[in-house]
Amino acid sequence: MLQRAISSFNELLPAFRGYYTKVKGWDWKVIGICFFTSFTFWLFNALNDEHNYDLQIPLFFDFDKDKIVVIDAPPRTVTVNVSGNGWNLFKRSVGADVQTEVVAFESVNAAVSNNFVTTRSLLPKISSKLKELQVNYILQDSIFFDFDTLTSKEIQLKMDTNQIPLKQGFRLTNSVNLTPNTIIVEGASSILNNIDDTILVGIDEGEIDEDFDENISLDYLSSEYLSLINEEVNVQFSVAEFENRSMNVGLELVNFPNGTDVTVDPGTAVISYLIEKDEQYLPRDSLKMILDYRDLNISDSTVKPTLIVPPYFLEYTYTPQKFSVSVE
User: Fold this and answer.
1) Would you say residue 319 lies in a domain?
2) pLDDT tens digit sequence for 285-318
3) Which residues partner with 53 through β-bridges?
């Protein structure tokens, strides 16, 4: 096959050489002038004829940007079909003397209450600006957009302490402090109305085992249509490690009849409690297990105790839940 292709090329080569020698002798300067002259006559002749053309007219929507948020922006141009002389159409098509059509609103309510403008209402004004052309129609029936009122809302910041990622065995030792505890959000009213009055602040941290004092970003509340006056909140709280302890506690008898022998079974109670790991104080003076004779259940001769614990006990239990009492 390759041999056949080479043979065919060799047969055509003399013809190519002859054509090249003939063309080489032409006067290309004269040919170029003739072509340019012909094209010029054709162009001028075409521009003198009547034509139809789809002309792009710039649009500008005039509204109070301090009171209105753009949710869905309107188009920047509208397409108008026009007829006229080629020269006039050429001048307009290259952007010369094309005036922007202004769509104005009488009030904020007028801008946000409708989401479209019919192009029929623009036709008279566009026609008056294109006097040398015949405006036939506008390709779009309507121009759509979405405007909303700009408003602001105060939102309370809170933190769910149960969602704080504390390390195993650690507890909060004070209340969580948020600074500021309220923020102002500005934006589209339709979106703000769907935001709760209170927002929970989250902490994106690992297991916390020390006092916390950091700024938390609130940028997740921001969007194309919402902005924050304060984009951060400072979160502070203290933590400590706690452990479970237990101790035997004696019983304190009150209101029992004088001159009687009282037997209580069992004679002591076991208190289990949660306390800071570094706390060494034994709370015997502020820890009381009281049996009150007035609480005696006659049917089974038992008394449910009253337990008084110090304020730094977070959780506590005791056994038994009731005591057998014999009074003689």
Assistant:
1) yes
2) 678 899 999 999 988 999 999 988 887 777 889 9
3) 82
